[in-house]
Write a structure and sequence with these properties.
By secondary structure, this protein is of the alpha/beta class. Helix content is 45%, strand content 13%. The strands form 6 sheets. It has a 5-stranded parallel beta sheet. It has a 4-stranded mixed beta sheet with strand order 2-3-1-12. Strands 8-7-20-19 form a 4-stranded mixed beta sheet.
């Protein structure tokens, strides 16, 4: 079966981009604001200017690092079952991460999310089969800012079953997050052998690794926890304006991260990901729904695949502020393009307003988009041989296939059947159901799905243990107790 697939670069251009990225690592080199990373690079064979905190990474060091980087790995759910496969052209979806606002359905306005919102979101993701993983989707405003990252993970671990994509905002809180994950996984060895999370690590464009992101990268590698490189060139602002040059910069930043990562622990899993954008020259914004952003994303995924690496993108989001036509067209376009490129993890469901806001209603609409997209990339299958001769000769000129056993046998495999969020009824049927808009139907589905949430498999003992870990960290920042968990 031919699977629909999209490439936006020819092979010679991919090779040139990689070659130029390798040259950029030698001149001008990479700024590295972390002493341990500089030491690793120096001992590994790079030329390091310690005073300027710049590493000049030779080509052979990059190829050595790539030779030890795993080509694929699995994420596991809380029951220990393999749930997500990074590698090849397998495509999975998870929600967008780290929103600082939530779109309130009742008011139509954005507001800061709190614990109850996050828990509701996690429960909703668990009920949506189109989503393959959780994410630490929003930052709660009802806890100390210093524990914002670990608190997201703490909440998710209490209510999730699916694996999760997360990230740390500080060096010290990474260790708290690891401690909670280790407890849930039954020990450090279990966490490394059956990882249930990926940590995003983000270089700063152009060609800079901060102290925080370097340390997160190193710590993930040494713990065997998968890391996800999230290079973010902004074409025309923090990278050259041409799309090809932005993709090349992405490659240089990502290759430097792989070198640091593999020098820390050769063979540790890492993902070639990103969240670039094409800078909007009129508004001064970073549109994730722009065609140029999608092309940069598709291009860097193709480069990563040419190197045999697991891949990730932030796509399927919208820059709209409400759930309108713009929101739908941008979300569908990005999600479809990401899937056609074969990105292993596509992050972005539920998100709007330049990656800053999450919406429950958008999440369930996006789930339907994802269902359509997943069906699209399945392509056209040959279910039987001969394809049509036997059944059509049997039926002749009768237009009565609906009752035929052949239809009953195959229609569920052939057709994606959406929920009521997608209206496929007649006008009369739509009016009889209240003439509801897509957003109204999505809101109804949110409420219906939350009633179907399956309880988390996490034991009460583990819940108590991770609460103690998170509370201990909170008290270091003047917060004596964490908010009470919703039921």
């Amino acid at each position: 079966m031919l699977r629909p697939k999209l490439n936006v670069l020819d092979e010679s251009l991919v090779r040139q981009m990689i070659d130029e990225a390798l040259q950029l690592l030698v001149d001008p080199g990479v700024r590295v604001h972390n002493d341990e990373a500089l030491r690793l690079l120096d001992e590994g064979g790079a030329h390091v200017d310690a005073d300027r905190q710049v590493a000049y990474i030779p080509e052979h060091l990059v190829w050595d690092a790539l030779s030890t980087t795993p080509k694929s790995f699995h994420l596991y759910d809380l029951t220990g079952a393999a749930a997500v496969h990074y590698g090849g052209d397998e495509v999975h979806f998870d929600p967008g991460s780290a929103a600082i606002f939530i779109l309130d359905y009742q008011t139509g306005k954005q507001r800061s999310p709190v614990t109850a919102d996050f828990v509701k979101f996690v429960k909703l993701v668990e009920t949506l089969p189109q989503l393959d993983a959780q994410s630490t989707a929003m930052v709660c405003a009802d806890v100390a800012e210093e524990i914002g990252d670990l608190y997201r993970l703490y909440l998710a671990l209490n209510f999730m079953r699916k694996p999760i994509i997360t990230g740390a905002f500080r060096k010290d809180t990474w260790w708290v997050m690891k401690e909670m994950l280790t407890a849930v996984a039954g020990g450090a060895a279990g966490l490394a052998s059956r990882p249930l999370t990926v940590f995003d690590v983000c270089p700063s464009p152009p060609l800079l690794w901060s102290d925080l992101t370097c340390q997160n990268l190193i710590d993930c590698a040494r713990a065997g926890i998968p890391a996800e490189l999230v290079s973010m060139p902004l074409s025309g602002a923090t990278s050259p304006v041409t799309l090809a040059a932005a993709i090349t910069q992405h490659a240089a930043e990502s290759l430097s991260g792989i070198v640091i990562h593999q020098l820390s622990n050769a063979g540790a899993p890492i993902v070639w990901g990103g969240s670039p954008a094409a800078f909007d020259m009129r508004e001064g914004t970073t549109p994730m729904g722009a065609a140029e952003t999608w092309l940069i994303d598709a291009g860097y995924v193709q480069v990563g695949k040419s190197l045999g690496l697991p891949t990730h993108v932030y796509m399927g989001m919208s820059d709209a502020k409400v759930l309108d036509a713009q929101c739908g067209l941008e979300s569908m376009g990005g999600a479809l393009m990401a899937a056609l490129c074969g990105a292993n993890m596509v992050s972005g469901a539920g998100m709007l307003d330049f990656e800053s806001c999450q919406s429950f209603e958008k999440l369930v609409i996006d789930a339907e988009i994802i269902g359509l997209v997943k069906r699209t990339i399945e392509g056209v299958a040959v279910r039987e041989q001969p394809i049509a001769l036997e059944i059509m000769r049997q039926m002749g000129h009768r237009a009565d296939y609906l009752a035929h056993p052949h239809t009953r046998k195959w229609f569920r495999k052939e057709l994606y059947i959406p929920s009521d969020v997608i209206d496929r009824g007649s006008l009369d049927a739509w009016e009889m159901k209240g003439s509801k808009s897509t957003v109204e139907r999505a809101h109804d589905r949110v409420n219906a799905l939350l009633l179907k949430y399956p309880p988390s498999p996490l034991s009460s003992e583990l819940r108590d243990e991770i609460r103690q870990i998170a509370t201990r960290a909170a008290r270091q920042f003047g917060m004596e107790e964490l908010p009470t968990l919703p039921e």
